[in-house]
Every structure is written in structure tokens, then in C-alpha cells.
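lol forgot to send this yesterday, sorry. C-alpha cells for the thing we talked abt
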């Protein structure tokens, strides 16, 4: 004789299904909050590191320009820093036979801060009037500039720069001594 045993095929009750769905939603919600929090922290840290790197790179570029210059002039009202080299040549006077020193301006660089666009721009000139770059070249040096200040003390130039992106900001400064000293230009 064969005895058949019937299996219990009733399945899950509605209460069991609701409880399992509630546990699943809680676990999935906690995982999503963890991922969102980590992504947000990463975004804030990346923005801050990007600002720091861009500020340091920009200050390094300005530092190099200052080192190569013979003179610097800062106009606080216009927020412009003018750097230039002076080519000195000894010229023998044909009439008196004496030697005079002739100074010619070359490699003029004008860094200016546009508060309307929060950007820093660079214009280069071969001499006092002739642009060294064509009009089609981009003169943008940096964006997200919040403040740009320069203090010139004899042959030391201190540039202070603050960059701001969204709610993050980074402020840095660099003091550079002009390699060739300060040369006066008439």
C-alpha cells in the first residue's frame, strides 16, 4: 500500500510578506543613505582639493612671472598687477663720447581681476604697446576668484588670492623676491 503525503502549499501569509518588505525597505534605505552621504562627502572634499590645487598652481605661475620681472606695480583701485622686464643697454653718445644707459621695457604682463566675472586675466605685451599675443588667444588665467590683492615692499611682492566655488573657499598667499632686484623705469 502506497501512502501519499500532501505537502503544505499554502505559501506566505500577507503579514509575513509585509514584514519582509518592511525589513527590505529599511535595509535598502540605510544603504542608500550611506551611499548618498559618502558621495556628498567625496564631492565636498573634491571641490576643496580642486580649489587648493588650482590656487597653488596659479600662485606658482604668478610667482614665476614675478621672478622673471624687474619691476612690479599694483593698482589697488583697478585690481591690476603689472610686471615687466627692463632691458638696459649702454649707448655711446656720438657727440660727447660718454656712455649713457638706455632702458627699454620688454615682456610686460598685466594681471587683472574682473570682479563681475570673478575671473583673473593675463595680458602680455612685447614692449610697452605691442601685444605679444593675438586677439584670438584666451587670456583667462583662472575662474572662481573671490579676492586678489598684492603688496609690494621694495623688491618683495606678496600676492594673496582667495578662490571660492559653491560654499567652499581657499585662501593662500605667496611672497616672492624679484630675482633681478627692482629696476626703476622712467
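and heres what i got for the seq, position by position
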Amino acid at each position: 500500500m502506497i501512502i501519499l503525503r500532501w505537502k503544505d502549499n499554502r505559501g506566505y501569509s500577507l503579514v509575513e510578506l509585509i514584514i519582509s518588505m518592511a525589513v527590505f525597505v529599511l535595509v535598502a534605505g540605510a544603504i542608500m543613505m550611506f551611499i548618498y552621504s559618502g558621495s556628498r562627502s567625496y564631492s565636498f572634499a573634491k571641490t576643496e582639493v580642486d580649489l587648493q590645487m588650482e590656487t597653488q598652481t596659479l600662485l606658482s605661475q604668478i610667482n614665476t612671472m614675478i621672478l622673471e620681472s624687474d619691476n612690479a606695480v599694483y593698482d589697488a583701485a583697478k585690481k591690476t598687477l603689472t610686471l615687466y622686464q627692463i632691458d638696459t643697454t649702454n649707448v655711446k653718445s656720438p657727440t660727447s663720447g660718454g656712455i649713457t644707459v638706455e632702458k627699454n621695457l620688454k615682456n610686460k604682463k598685466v594681471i587683472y581681476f574682473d570682479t563681475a566675472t570673478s575671473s583673473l586675466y593675463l595680458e602680455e605685451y612685447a614692449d610697452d604697446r605691442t601685444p605679444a599675443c593675438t586677439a584670438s588667444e584666451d587670456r583667462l588665467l583662472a575662474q572662481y576668484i573671490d579676492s586678489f590683492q598684492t603688496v609690494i615692499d621694495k623688491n618683495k611682492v606678496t600676492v594673496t588670492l582667495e578662490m571660492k566655488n559653491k560654499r567652499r573657499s581657499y585662501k593662500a598667499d605667496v611672497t616672492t623676491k624679484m630675482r633681478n632686484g627692482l629696476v626703476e623705469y622712467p
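Strands lie at 71-75, 80-92, 99-114, 119-125, 140-142, 145-153, 156-165, 168-177. anyway ping me if u want another try
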